Amino acid sequence: MKQELPEHVDLSYEQVLLQYQALQREMEQLRVRESTVWNLFTETSRKLQVYTASIKAAVSSLLSYDIFWDTANQHEFLETINGSVDQISDLVMLMTLALRFEAGKLNMRNEPQMIQEILSKVSESVASEFRNLTFNVDFPGEGKPVFVDFEYLFLAIKLLLSVVASDPKPAHIHVQAIEGENSWSLDFDGIHPSVIDSLQDLTACSNKYVPDLNRVSTENALRLYVVFKIFCFQDINLQIVPSQQGNGNLRLYIPVYGEKVQGKSLSPDDPTHVSTL
Question: What is the pLDDT of residues 222-267, one digit of tens each?
Fold first, then answer.
């Protein structure tokens, strides 16, 4: 059964602001000033102010009575507004997920799923959304099902690739999927060293993680935090393994559905599971 996720949707400026204000109130209630989420939200709030200022400036220019803007300039202002609203909407979605992780209220249901279907959906999404990213996947046609939430694992891999695609330079990512006795391994070749380093930092100190914003942007730091937490909630092991280029490759170990996991609940409703995060 697929779960309903917070996702990017087309919202009006007023709707985005209402969501942002609601998130601010929830942040104050949680009081997570020394946590990873608080560190990320502090920087994210600054970004939201920048996007809001861009929208305000563009709208003010369009509403000016003493200046006549031709069609080309009007279109440029509207593109600025549209792009800024999209950025705010994406950040709100990420902040909502991060808050759910912090509060232990994430509605995640792990069920037997075919890893081939998840990777195929990722490949289709990348081809349509990330023009500067080439994504190739090798996997066998058959194999044991994995024990995951389909939509959340899809989201995590897509967010990871969106960090790679945020670099304007063309990139090539190759994923090799290999079935093992207790897990599938996914090897990601071609991920930038700065992303690898950020994931290593998260793995080493997830509870006191302070993102290096000289290495990755605020948005990407928040994306990687959400990716890391989705992996944790699904018992997916993340490792950095040696590569021919020397930068290291990302490897995921995704548990297969079998006797060891049958009847095991990995949802937030299971207090034992949540307390281990």
Answer: 889 899 989 988 999 998 888 776 667 899 999 999 744 544 444 3
> Alpha-carbon distance 252 to 187, whole Å?
7
> Are 99 and 235 found together in one domain?
no
* Residue at which a domain ends, from 103, 120, 154: 103
Domain end: 103, 121, 147, which one?
103
Query: Is residue 136 located within the same domain as residue 52?
Result: no
- 96 lies in the same domain as 208: no
Percent of the chain with pLDDT strictly greater than 90: 28
Q: Are residues 86 and 123 in the same domain?
A: no
Same domain, 120 and 210: yes
The token pair that represents 173 in the structure block: 């990512």
For residue 147, the domain's CATH number is 3.30.565.10
The rounded distance, in Å, linking the Cα atoms of 13 and 8 is 14
pLDDT > 60? residue 60: yes
pLDDT tens profile 149-200: 999 999 999 999 999 988 888 889 999 999 998 999 999 998 888 888 888 8
**Whole-prediction pTM:** 0.71
- Token pair, residue 18, equals 């209402």
Residue 37 domain boundaries: 13-103
Bridge partners (DSSP) listed for residue 147: 112
